[in-house]
Design a protein that fits this description.
mainly alpha; Serine Threonine Protein Phosphatase 5, Tetratricopeptide repeat; 272 residues; 2 domains
Amino acid sequence: MLKLGEKIKSLRKQKDISQEVFANYLGVSFQAVSKWENGNTLPDVTLIPAIASFFGVSCDELFDFNIYETEKNIRAIVDEHSVYWYSDPEKSEQIIRDGLKKYPGNETLLNCLIGVLSELHKNEEVISIGKALSETTKSDEIRIDTYRIMAMAYKEMGEYQLAKESIKRIPELYFTKLEVSAELLEGEEKYAAAKQHTTLCTVSLVDTLWDMGKYLKEMGESECGDAHIKTALRIIDAFLCDSEGRKDFTVTPNLLEAMSQRRDILMGLVRE
């Protein structure tokens, strides 16, 4: 595998541009670029997506990784970090950071990182990484999710207007790939999409009813607010009951724990 500096130099010469032009694009000095290419230093991790975008390659290609093996390994890292998402977010964060040491600048891992950083309320780092990622990623899915996570971080930081601006960048969609797959595909593919879509819709509906109920109670409409919350509780109970002992109903222990936690919180809201 070529060293990163050698790869950058090779791509720059293929593009037939000077170090100065490349440096201006990145907002760094040409001396910094020279140090990278000579192997004296490495670019900051937040610059990796921009470098890859400039040369029209993926971050994996920039590091000369085997794409198939990389995707498989990245998937394993993501799966491992998700196991600890609710129970030990600090460990989840460390798993992703270790993955980024092996696959610097990988967009999937960066997206996971800002997600878990948001859970840990490390909002300034979320914004720093999110800005670079949203501007350089070629993946619509990652870009949209990045805007969502940034909006959450801005809201928690008290930057309400910036949160609204991030939300405006998220397209309004009235269907998802899973929904269309569940409707139009056949056999096992249809069923697998329907299972996953059902889980996502259940969580989304519970959280939306929670938000509505909480708002109405804050506005003094306790009866209407409680009605929404009680509906959310009935959905959670049905979900937990339906998933119990079902081999064909794939739900992770983390999700079951998260839904149980939601139930406890909502029960408290009803008693208030």
